[in-house]
Amino acid sequence: MSRRNSRPLSLHIPEPPSRPGDEADFSHFEIPAAGVVARPDTAVAASEIRDMVHTLVRVLDDDGRAVGPWDPKLDADTLRQALRAMMLTRAFDERMYRQQRQGKTSFYMKCTGEEAVACAAAMAIDSDDMCFPTYRQQGLLVTRGYSMVDMMCQIYSNERDPLKGRQLPIMYSSKAAGFFSISGNLGTQVPQAVGWAMASAYSEDTRIAAAWTGEGATAEGDFHYAMTFATVYRAPVIINVVNNQWAISSYSGIAGGDEATFAARAIGYGMAGLRVDGNDFLAVYAATRWAAERARTNQGPTLIEHFTYRAEGHSTSDDPARYRPSEEAKRWPLGDPIERLKQHLVAIGEWDDERHAALGKELVEQGKAAGREAESYGTLSGENVVQADSMFEDVFKEVPWHLVEQRDQAEAERQAWHK
Amino acid sequence: MAQMNMIQALNSALDVMMERDPKVLTFGEDVGYFGGVFRVTDGLQKKYGLKRCFDTPIAEGGIVGVAVGMGAYGLRPVAEIQFADYIYPGLDQIISEAARLRYRTAGEFTSPITIRSPYGGGIYGGQTHSQSPEAIFTHVAGLKTVIPSTPYDAKGLLISAIEDDDPVMFFEPKRIYNGPFDGNHSRPVTPWAKHPASEVPEGHYSIPLGKAAVVREGGAVTVLAYGTMVHVAIGAAEATGIDAEVVDLRTIWPVDIETIEASVKKTGRCVIVHEATRTSGFGAELSALVQERCFYHLEAPIERVTGFDTPYPHSFEWNYFPGPIRVGSALRRVMEA
After folding, report:
1. Where do the domains of chain B lie?
2. Contact yes or no for B298/B264 (Cβ under 8 A)
3. Are strands A302-307 and A237-243 parallel, antiparallel or unpaired?
4. Which chain B residues contact residue A190 at CB under 8 A?
5. Model-level pTM?
6. Residue A246 counted as domain residue
7. A1 has a pLDDT exceeding 60
8. CA angle A57, A273, A198 (to 5 degrees)
9. Which CATH architecture does the domain made up of B2-200 adopt?
10. For B213-336, which CATH class?
11. Which of A198, A206, A232, A407 to mutate to test the interface with B (most CBs of B within 10 A)?
């Protein structure tokens, strides 16, 4: 078998359609009109809804009207509550970003443009359902009413930090808020969510679990372990893939997004999959309700791809202008989740610019007040950082001999040195 | 009391704990209906039902990840990794997640999980069924690592591991599942039935983690060993006629430093034996600890007898395995020093 005449092979390296200096280009996205996607019964077999992974569930149209079968028909008070949660999340982000820039902490990550993904989910599931987030779902905590002061104290690693200064800023954890400890090793939380959900089913509980991962980390083995175990054991879990197009500087094609949608990953596992407009609060809410209903009725897991856009840098250590067109965020075809929900409330006569401006001001004040209190307990750059002598605790339930020795030696050396 | 080999003793530990605590469940590859490739979970699915003892996909990262989630919920999962050689895909979930969860959440979430895995050589398992990766886990803050050497200890230690509120790595020396192999591979293995530690209570009992056992008293040299090597060390002491004190560590981390220190200060000599490769093996840590604490009592350099720093070979297994000739030679060297 001679291959002498065959042409040389070529290696494909995916590249995004535009880079700095280019025109931002989203023309390759197919975006169906709001309201056109059917809403299957929650008892449907996953094999009957495979087309759902190739479209986009959208409720809010360009005029701010809620249309089609996925409209969750929320009352105006609930819609205003949703708007407030998203705006508060953004106000919190803006404040903490500035505080980081002022040197009061080492690191911060905003979720600008992705508020609907977390806030809508938090409102669509029950408050005691368990969340296994990644690092851009602060909206879950904000929506669930977790203390902003506690969040800030974590970011400042101060004397009131619930995590005692042991975690990178924004890696929150709160058992009471049903918010599992964030891990910087991406993807690990997804099989953990499946395990938690299996434990809930094992215990004949009624609570379900939900996990979030970025599209970039779907390439991790953990994501695929989670998909397999969730399907095999029909775990009552919602696996959310937040496709914000960028994994630091790598566009979604590097994670395999050019060849198939992330929602389409569900098909190979036999899992129900949905793909939703992640900047449409009502669509995210409705899809999450649908998936939660399936989970609660032992229909098993659902994969939801939230199609959204990371409007800001990856973190305070990142400058996106170095790898994508600077006006790309403005060109994002699915708009801004806060503006879209506001437009809807205005369109149905339940909101106006004046009230919106007043709410914005109120939330900024709320953030300022929380900030003043949190900073009174210390900041990373200040005096009242959490005491280092707790460093040796909680490695194990009881402190073993070697940690006692290490702690005592460190203390003795410090004291002797300063004599 | 009943007579049990190590497999039966481990099975009994799981049985006792599943009977006592509905939060205990076990799973892994081939663990359910079949009862595990080494039969450790034999009969548990039949007795406790599908949901308490079940098969998993071949995905160690998934097995451990799911166990961490179950632990966070409040269960006490016992996950089996079919061979310790297969544990590496699960390392991120063990090292970055299970081990650190208590610390990074200031005690709010914990990982009360046990990961069982057969380890070690001597069964012609080649590179992927013979390794001894225990040292990796002792290097990780937040893990306990346990290795029994008899049926009695295996049951009592596994019960303690399951009841422990921290994650425990539980490595089972598969070469001695059926009998206390002393390294003389050409002789038939004595079955556990002839060993006093095969007398095992049928009910609940526990052996505290972090406590070693002096399994052979002696005054001339201390041998620190665990797992299969405990029996090889005893055999070598008997073959050489050297008055060696053999300390079975049982829990390798946190190690029982008091027992080690007392023994080495008494004998003034120390030989450390393990099957795992030498460089950065757990013997290096033991050697450092002994040096730090017993330096002025030592009359000879500390010796390590370990697997060689090569991958585990298949056909040269008995050239590789740190058997009685190598352990006996080390004992003679430290006595002559």
Report:
1. 2-200, 213-336
2. yes
3. parallel
4. 65
5. 0.97
6. yes
7. no
8. 130
9. 3-Layer(aba) Sandwich (3.40)
10. alpha beta
11. A198
